[in-house]
Amino acid sequence: xxxxxxxxxxxxxxxxxxxxxxxxxxxxxxxxxxxxxxxxxxxxxxxxxxxxxxxxxxxxxxxxxxxxxxxxxxxxxxxxxxxxxxxxxxxxxxxxxxxxxxxxxxxxxxxxxxxxxxxxxxxxxxxxxxxxxxxxxxxxxxxxxxxxxxxxxxxxxxxxxxxxxxxxxxxxxxxxxxxxxxxxxxxxxxx
Length: 191
What we know:
Elements: H1 7-14, H2 40-45, H3 59-69, H4 74-81, H5 89-101, H6 103-122, H7 124-141, H8 145-159, H9 175-190
Helix pairs in contact: 3-4, 3-6, 4-5, 6-7, 7-8
């Protein structure tokens, strides 16, 4: 019966073993007269250790991330990252989706967008610019007419296009006007 190897176990194997086990309540190697080493037969009977290969991000992945962060759609970002790929739109969309779900790409996008969101919250002017730019892009590129109209409506509201002229406030009455109005009301009460 072999034990299941997990990534945590593999990582723990890479950690250096302390020279002396006395600190941990175990005897050190020097306490044994004849240390026992497994024979070749015992070693060959053990399950092989799987190696985890860490891959670095490719140039195409970095280009895809940069294009996505610049505001491109996944399909456009994929075409920018891989200009020699002459596949159909459906294939490019599928590949772009797969690439966006790749662990390295997804983590990089999430980290970058998290930093962007934090920066936008801190700077309200940048937030307004970001929203306006996103609405403009949506009003141009949305597939459905309703989505384009909604983006235009929100742009109009942001610009103040749908507010009526500010109502003019009547000037505050003077003391003389208040006395005259009070005198009129008192006459009515006496009658």
